[in-house]
Specification:
Blueprint: E1 3-7, E2 14-19, H1 23-42, H2 45-61, H3 63-74, H4 78-82, H5 84-102, E3 106-109, E4 112-118, E5 121-125, H6 131-145, E6 148-152, H7 160-170, E7 178-180, H8 185-194, E8 200-204, H9 207-217, E9 223-227, E10 233-236, H10 242-254, E11 266-270, H11 274-285, H12 306-321, E12 325-328, E13 344-347, H13 354-357, E14 364-370, H14 373-380, E15 388-392, H15 395-404, E16 409-412, E17 430-431, H16 436-441, E18 444-450
Parallel strand pairs: 5-6, 5-8, 6-7, 8-9, 10-11, 10-15, 11-14, 13-14, 15-16
Antiparallel strand pairs: 1-2, 3-4, 4-18, 9-17, 12-13
Length: about 450
């Protein structure tokens, strides 16, 4: 059997191996999912939701093991792995378990009965940056909806899959409802996307891969939900509380090493305040300790792989070459060993430049000056992406700007994440929505029965 090595990006050491799945493995997984579908779909929504609730509890019970696994396989600092990487999926599972009780499974519409039914077999393809969160965000609503699933985790961070399978089995999930096929996107991802026995694809990852999945899936006219890249803007207005706006913006750029699709790598600032804000950003960045992700004091661990480190480093080199003003960090390895990047801040960044337009997916913050609110909105909307953004300023002004930003989710003055609110993107950031009622509806078909 051919296998894929799993490397610890902090050391480069092989820590495990997973099977290199084939199209034939996908066929077997789809057959199991289709065989399990009728009985699972016939199970009552509240019974399905109870299992999802127990999955959330099971994740919490094994939090330390899962956090250590995530840190080892993709380099998230252990403090972040123990909090966001674990607490977010627990909150998502709990929210979907509760939603089943109030969701409108049927609806009277004139002389029609509108019925929401499982879409069928879902193919889930997830990335490495939040390996547990990303699958729970798909699995929880799919299970509550009554769907079965074939899941391909990222081959870079596949080890949490085994633990989640054990948790699901202990929670009472019937055999065949959740099926895992390890492997590469080129082989397993393609097979899942093209398979006629799969009714829906739910993918989180790069825009490039999302385009390919959409094209392949079109051959069988299956539903495709894509949560893709982002290039979020943090718009700081005159009158904003800089003690909140700047550290929050730095955190939203550097958390998880910047490997977050919903990060804000562009900080848009009034031109006359750029130097002050840049100095505040540097002061905040100095607190982000780079080092061994297993240490409690580490704020930024390695990039998830050496190849990704090289990609991020290349963008930093582009920024320097294009004339952006380097105010923190820069090129060069902070350590001889490991896929580390120096967290970096540029000022005086041209909004049309490569580092301001393309998703870097690393700890690189670009500070872009503007001269008017209209210009700030134009810059914020001036990329092909539209996933997340933030606005800081006087409440009414900030809300007005938030309404003008073309992104699926905008935080005003540090508004907190809400697991019931829809999450998804405009433009090249994808389509469909995750979380809450909107996320559950993605995994359902709608039937009208006229009487």
């Amino acid at each position: 059997m051919t296998t894929i090595p799993v490397l610890n990006p902090a050391t480069g050491d092989v820590i495990a191996e997973v099977p290199a799945g084939t199209a034939a493995d996908v066929d077997r997984a789809v057959a199991a999912a289709r065989a399990a579908l009728p009985a699972w779909a016939a199970t009552g929504p509240l019974d399905r939701a109870a299992i999802v609730g127990r999955v959330g509890a099971g994740i919490l019970a094994r939090a330390d093991e899962l956090a250590a696994t995530i840190t080892a396989e993709m380099g998230a600092p252990i403090s972040l792995a123990r909090t966001a990487q674990i607490q977010f999926p627990v909150a998502v599972a709990q929210s979907f378990a509760a939603l089943a009780e109030t969701f409108a499974w049927t609806e009277e519409l004139g002389d029609s009965l509108v019925v929401r039914e499982p879409i069928g077999v879902v193919g889930a393809i997830t990335p490495w940056n939040f390996p547990l969160q990303q699958i729970v965000s798909k699995l929880a609503p799919a299970l509550v909806a009554g769907d079965t699933m074939v899941w391909k985790p990222s081959e870079i961070a596949p080890l949490t899959a085994r633990v989640l399978l054990e948790i699901a089995e202990e929670a009472g999930l019937p055999a065949g409802v959740l099926n895992v096929v390890h492997g590469t996107g080129e082989v397993v991802g393609e097979a899942i996307s093209a398979h006629p026995g799969i009714d829906m694809i739910s993918f989180t990852g790069s825009t490039r891969a999302g385009r390919r999945i959409g094209a392949v899936a079109a051959g069988t006219v299956k539903r495709v939900a894509l949560e893709l890249g982002g290039k979020g803007a943090n718009v700081i207005l005159p009158g904003a509380d800089l003690d909140v706006a700047v550290p929050t913006g730095v955190a939203m750029s550097f958390t998880n090493g910047g490997q977050v699709c919903g990060s804000w790598p562009r900080m848009l600032v009034p031109a006359g305040m750029q130097d002050e804000i840049a100095a505040r950003a540097v002061a905040a960045a100095e607190g982000y300790t780079v080092g061994d992700p297993a240490l409690e004091t580490t704020m930024i661990g390695p990039m998830a792989s050496e190849a990704h480190r090289d990609k991020v480093h290349g963008y930093i080199e582009h920024g320097v070459a294009d004339g952006a003003r380097l105010v923190f960090g820069g090129t060069g390895r902070p350590f001889e060993k490991g896929a580390y990047v120096r967290p970096t801040i540029f000022a005086d960044v041209d909004p049309a430049s490569k580092i301001a337009q393309e998703e870097i997916f690393g700890p690189v913050l670009t500070i872009i000056p503007y001269t008017s609110t209209d210009e700030a909105v134009a810059i914020a909307n001036g990329t092909s992406y539209g996933l997340t953004s933030g606005v800081f300023g006087p409440a009414d002004e900030a809300m007005a700007v938030a309404r003008r930003i073309r992104a699926g989710q905008v935080d005003v003055n540090g508004g907190h994440w809400n697991p019931l609110a829809p999450f998804g993107g405009y433009g090249q950031s994808g389509n469909g929505r995750e979380f809450g009622r909107f996320g559950l509806e993605e995994f359902l078909e709608v039937k009208s029965i006229q009487r």
